[in-house]
Write a structure and sequence with these properties.
- Helices cover 11% and strands 58% of the residues.
- The chain is mostly beta strands.
- The strands form 2 sheets. The chain has a 5-stranded antiparallel sheet with strand order 1-2-3-7-6, with no helix packed on it. Strands 5-4-8-9 form a 4-stranded antiparallel sheet, with no helix packed on it.
- 23% of the residues are buried.
């Protein structure tokens, strides 16, 4: 009798899709990609095109209590990609966070000298 009950619980667990913290958002030329699982965030990458000399980006966290800086403005890396047969220059920065966030927290990237934040909401 116990075996069929256990099998039913295992079958139900297999049907549930695991929660993912992975997401992507864009606001204008500002892109943000968050990688993780559930409420756990492994890393955050922001990118901006076109390339700008000495570009800097920072990472902030928005909660119902306000905005908090997670990473200060830092220098970014430069790269070139070829999309659709055209060369594209862009700046990017990756932060390794390896931490959990509260459900509903917004992680946002900002670029020095540009308005607006690109944000991803962390949720179950």
């Amino acid at each position: 009798m116990i075996i069929p009950g256990v099998a039913a619980v295992v079958a139900l667990a297999m049907l549930q899709t695991p929660a993912e913290a992975t997401g992507h958002a864009q606001r204008g030329a500002n892109h943000i990609t968050v990688r993780g699982s559930g409420l756990y965030v492994k890393s955050v990458t922001t990118s901006r095109s076109p390339h700008r000399y000495k570009a800097q980006a920072r990472l902030v966290m928005e909660t119902r209590h306000g905005v908090r800086q997670l990473q200060p403005y830092q220098d970014t890396n430069f790269s070139t990609s070829f999309a659709g047969g055209r060369e594209r220059d862009y700046d990017y920065r990756t932060w390794t966070l390896k931490r959990k966030f509260a459900n509903g927290t917004r992680l946002c990237s900002e670029w020095k000298g540009y308005r607006g934040r690109a944000c991803v909401i962390i949720h179950k």
